[in-house]
Amino acid sequence: MSWDMVNSLLDLMRLVICLIFLSIASIYDIKFREVPNLLWIIFAPLGLALSLTSLILNIYDRLLVFTWIVILIIMSSLSLALFYFGLMGGADSKALICLALSAPARLDVSVIRPVLRSRLQQFFPILVSISTFNNAVLIASLLTIIIALRNLIDLIRSSDGLFKGLEGESFLKKALAFMIGYRVDARKLRSRRHYYISMEEFSLERNGSIKRHLKIFRPMNASGEVKVWVPEDFEGKIWVTPGLPFLLFIEAGFIMTMLLGDIIMWLVANLLGAL
């Protein structure tokens, strides 16, 4: 068996492992909104062991070694920073770090599909973990189109407008809320039959009245949840954003990277070429 075949088989094993663990994590995230740490405890060393084996076989390729180290530093720093600032749940951060350990650079799976290698090379596939994150963000951002259409329908149907009780908020906050959130009945938010993240903050004034504010970005805890107080006697609609599991987008981004590569990099390259 040639060295190229051995490398391809190792890459195939890393690909399968990433798909298996990301799929399991996504199922846990959808069903329970929590992923057991045991999953990452198994995923990380298993993926790292295969990556180190592949790295040892290519130890004389200094560019590859340097690239892997840089990508691991970048993805670990990015994941921890997003978690620290409350923009990503702990499971999402761990998934990206495990992915960087298991598949930092291009996975050559030409052993099962030769045409895949050339397609990957055309779409800038050398940074698998970074490309996965880019694609995940791209897929998640496409939801803004659906949300905006929903709000347009709500605006047409509503006689009081979309921001009744929030007239004092800035235009920028309202525009962001329109793109990433929508209104739901307060009773539905309290029932927890649906998973939402409130985009409003309530404060009790000295005269006993309740004042509302738009709070677009809220820090998450380790499980990706946001604790929000909603007054029990409040009636009406509250601005929320859907608490969709980002792990699902990470898995979709990984699959897209394997099939197409980094779509954002491809778009940027074509835009620069056109200019």
| Low-pLDDT sequence parts | 111-125
Q: How many domains, in number, for the residues?
A: 2
Query: How far from one another are the termini?
Result: 47 Å
The 3D shape can be described as elongated
The pLDDT mean sits at 80
Order of helices and strands: HHHHHHHHEHEEEEHH
Task: Please give the count of helices.
Answer: 11
The count of DSSP E runs of length 2 or more, i.e. the number of strands, is 5
**Biggest sheet overview:** 3 strands, antiparallel
The helix content is 55-70%
- Helix/strand-derived category reads mainly alpha
Radius of gyration: 22 Å
Strand order of the largest sheet: 1-5-2
How much beta, percentage-wise? 5-15%
Q: Care to describe what's here?
A:
The protein is mainly α. The protein has two domains: 3-141 and 246-274, no CATH class; 143-242, no CATH class. It is 61% helix and 8% strand. The chain has eleven helices and five strands. It has helices spanning 3-32, 37-57, 62-84, 90-102, 114-122, 128-141, 143-157, 171-180, 186-191, 246-259, 263-274; strands at 182-185, 196-198, 200-204, 210-214, 237-242. The protein has a three-stranded antiparallel β-sheet. It has a two-stranded antiparallel sheet with strand order 3-4. β3 and β4 (210-214) form a beta hairpin. It is elongated. The termini are far apart.
